[in-house]
Amino acid sequence: MKIITWNVNWIRAVAKKWFKDFIKKESPDILAIQETKAFEKQFLKDVGNIDWYNYVWHAWERPWYAWSAIFYKDINYIIDTKKHFDNIEHFHTDWRITEIKTKDFTLINWYFPNWWTRANWKEMLTYKLDFYNHIIDYSNNLVKNWKNAIITWDFNICHTAIDIARPKENQNSIWFLPIERKKISELLDNWYIDTFRYFYPNKTDIYSWWSYRAWARPRNVWWRLDYFIVNKDFIKKVQNVEYLTDVMWSDHCPVRLTLK
Questions:
Q1: How far apart are CA 189 and CA 113, in angstroms?
Q2: Does 154 participate in catalysis according to the annotation?
Q3: pTM of this structure
Q4: pLDDT values of the chain reduced to their tens digit, one per residue, 260 residues
Q5: Which residue in 154, 163, 194, 226 is the catalytic one?
Q6: Is residue 67 within 8 Å of residue 91, measured between CB atoms?
Q7: Strand order in the sheet with 255-259
Q8: How many CB atoms sit inside 10 A of residue 254's CB?
Q9: Helix/strand/coil (H, E, C) string of the chain?
Q10: Domains in the chain, ordered, with CATH?
């Protein structure tokens, strides 16, 4: 099984740059996307239906915002989909989350808070840290009740120094603050695994986001912000993880997870 995660940074722009061709070429069983920045009807207008795929779309009505969606092949291993998280305010107010449940695992697709001030002008870092606390609790309960979870996202945090091109220069930068990085460590300490680091613990110069400024991408100078995390019992089902750095249609590249 092939699963791809991708922060498309505005799905309507990517739609004009061969989105259907990308799906046809890769043929993922599941495609989790973040930062769609579009209503479902806008996507359908620009792209239309995609052969062999169903989808679950975010359910909020605020334009030009985070949002996420999951595309999945119309086959019988899908049990349920979810786009409403009313019981957790941090999830409910931003609609950053979509979820799909299969016979073997639940995949949670998150777009994590960034560093900008919120729409109500509240300071963002505290909100962001609280969001991570909810993520840890939610994931733990999910694994407890459903056994296996694949957690994918644009995390908006680099975990370790080898996940960023300039760690010393960015030690006081949002996305690399010690208090933020600690949240990833807390998640991993709760019996989860960063799949890429499981297979490539010391590999450097692998990033998933590049600024549009200063020719960052051609120089490969930036950050690894996009992850596939699984619970430890599920890692035996993972065959490989790859960053598709040659896909250029967003400031993020897709990440491919292959299951055995």
A1: 21
A2: yes
A3: 0.91
A4: 999 999 988 888 777 667 888 999 999 999 999 888 888 888 888 888 888 899 998 866 666 666 789 999 977 888 999 887 777 766 766 667 899 999 999 999 987 777 554 444 456 788 888 888 888 898 999 898 878 999 998 888 899 999 999 898 888 887 888 988 998 999 999 889 999 999 999 999 999 999 877 666 778 878 999 999 999 999 999 999 999 999 988 989 999 999 99
A5: 154
A6: no
A7: 53-57, 68-73, 30-34, 2-7, 255-259, 238-243
A8: 25
A9: CEEEEEECCCHHHHHCCCHHHHHHHHCCCEEEEECCCCCHHHHHHHCCCCCCEEEEECCCCCCCCCCEEEEEECCCCEEEEECCCCCCHHHHCCCCEEEEEECCCEEEEEECCCCCCCCCCCCHHHHHHHHHHHHHHHHHHHHHHHCCEEEEEECCCCCCHHHECCCCCCCCCCCCCHHHHHHHHHHHHCCEEEHHHHHCCCCCCCCCECCCCCCCCCCCCCECCEEEEEEHHHHHHEEEEEECCCCCCCCECCEEEEEC
A10: 2-259 (3.60.10.10)
Q: Which two tokens stand for residue 230?
A: 């699984």
Question: Taking the CB of residue 24, how many other CB atoms lie within 10 A of it?
Answer: 12
